[in-house]
Amino acid sequence: MAKDKDIAIKVENVSKLFSIPHEKHATLKASALNIFSKRSYTEFSALRDVSFEVKKGEFFGIIGRNGCGKSTLLKIIAGIYLPTSGKITYDGRISPFLELGVGFNPELTARENIFLGGSILGLTRKELEASFDKIVEFAELQDFIDMKFKNFSSGMQVRLAFALAIYAHAEILLMDEVLAVGDSNFQSKCLEEFNSYREQGKTIVLVTHDITIVQRYCDRAMLLRNGKIVNIGKPEDVGNEYMLQNMSDEEKRILEEREEGDEKSVSRNKDVSITGVEFLDTEGQVRSVFKTGEDITARIHYFTKQPIEKPVFGVAIHTQDGIHISGPNTRTSDIRIPEICGKGYIDFTIKKAPLFTGAYNLTVALFDWNLSIPYSFQEQRYIFRIRSADTNQYGVVKLEISWKI
After folding, report:
1. Upper half-sphere CA count for residue 297 (Cβ side, 13 Å)
2. How far is it, in rounded angstroms, from Cα 13 to Cα 148?
3. CA 301, 305, 310, 311: dihedral to nearest 10 degrees?
4. Please, are residues 355 and 398 in contact by the beta-carbon 8 Å criterion?
5. Alpha helix stretches (DSSP H) within 12-87
6. From the CB of residue 111, how many other CB atoms can be counted at a distance below 10 Å?
7. 7-22+40-244: CATH topology
8. Inter-axis angle of helices 110-120 and 154-166, to 10 degrees?
């Protein structure tokens, strides 16, 4: 148990090594023939000296690329894996939702699996009977309660598993990509339930690729990379660092492919591209110099060889000396684009640009819905300039101000 009364989970110097055999025997005969042969292994370090704390009543997000150790860490906290070194202490009962189907028997009905899965989570039959109707209602499975679990869609499975985890009434809720499956209505219901859970003073740890969810709902976030902690702090800062990492990784990959002369890979990247940006005034005329207070529209042209569902366009504005002014995207602006294909453009407008004299660099990017895959990006490639007649203020941004004495 965690000693500090305000700490729900304490992770201290946790590392995890996996031994991966070089040879795999697919049949019993192969295993018998090689029973006395010496097998060789490669050690894979999934986590490396990870330490952090999660406070009681906190909504804590963990993000990072595939293979960074997020799910491994959550399984160690849940007690499914043992750490190679280090220790974890916690205060409160844990309810984990880690993988689809874990704790359920595919041959049993949903009704039977509620009692099976609930018992694994430590609930008594009396507790399960008392919560049964609420679990079924939340999972929206009233008409399928006696259907076998194996015949459920992935969305139905995740709804049942999530409902059961929520109604386990544990103090700590561990969630691994629960929002990756299911429709938007169910995702909204999950987030409402998370807020209710937190208001009760309970703790939520959420592993996800969805930067927007982390930035909008989490109290703090942690970024993992190659099994190590890169950053812990404000969700906005951690999410932005994750996006920059993804963009940097993509740029490095493209450069490596070009250096290696991999024509196939380079052409694949050309299937999706931002083809150019032009700056327009309110009359639709192309300009590169604007006045403070004018509307500035960046028309972002793109081309996709194949349809892309739910794309996200993003921009970042920097001064020439590298100061980051703003970085909005269509998703955080509540603009949902169902699909793009072929040639097209999207307009990004800065209303009454509150910028002083100077040159400004524009980064443009095209992401998937979770903001984890940068299909195309161009860093600080486009420049527009501002000329200001206002000499009463100095700096980068013009503020609406007043004085009172």
Report:
1. 12
2. 43
3. -40
4. yes
5. 28-33, 70-78
6. 15
7. Rossmann fold (3.40.50)
8. 40
pLDDT tens, residue order, the chain (405 aa): 555 688 999 999 999 999 877 566 556 655 655 655 666 678 889 999 999 999 999 999 999 988 899 999 999 998 889 999 999 999 988 988 776 556 688 899 999 999 998 888 878 899 889 989 999 998 888 999 999 988 988 788 888 888 888 888 789 999 887 666 556 677 777 888 888 888 888 899 999 887 878 888 899 999 999 999 999 999 988 987 887 777 667 666 656 655 555 433 333 446 888 999 999 999 999 998 999 999 999 999 999 999 999 999 999 999 877 788 888 999 989 999 999 999 999 999 999 999 988 889 999 999 998 887 888 888 888 999 888 876 566 677 877 767 888
- Integer Cα distance of 394 and 188 in angstroms: 44
- Which superfamily does 273-387 belong to? abc- transporter (atp binding component) like domain (2.70.50.60)
- The 3-state DSSP class for residue 206 equals strand
The encoded tokens of residue 259 equal 């250096």
Q: How far is CA 187 from CA 159, 211, 213, in A?
A: 10, 15, 10
Question: What does the block give as tokens for 53?
Answer: 């704390």
- Over its C-alpha atoms, the chain yields an Rg (Å, rounded) of 26
- CA 393 from chain centre, in angstroms, equals 40
What residues are paired with 88 via a beta bridge? 11
DSSP sequence for 117-149? HHHHTT--HHHHHHHHHHHHHHHT-GGGTTSBG
Give strand pairing partners of 312: 367
**Residue partners of 377: CB distance under 8 A and separation at least 6:** 247, 250, 251, 274, 363, 364, 365, 366
Which of 330, 334, 332 has its CA nearest to residue 311?
330
Pairing of strands 94-97, 172-176: parallel
Distance set, CA 166 to CA 35, 97, 117, 230 (Å)? 46, 9, 12, 30
Sketch the domain layout of the chain as residue ranges: 7-22+40-244, 273-387
61 beta partners: 206, 221
How many Å apart are CA 279 and CA 78, to the nearest integer?
52
Q: Which two tokens stand for residue 106?
A: 């595919």
- CA 170 – CA 229 distance, rounded (Å): 27
Sign of the Cα pseudo-torsion (228, 230, 235, 240, in order): negative
User: Which amino acid makes up residue 231?
Assistant: N
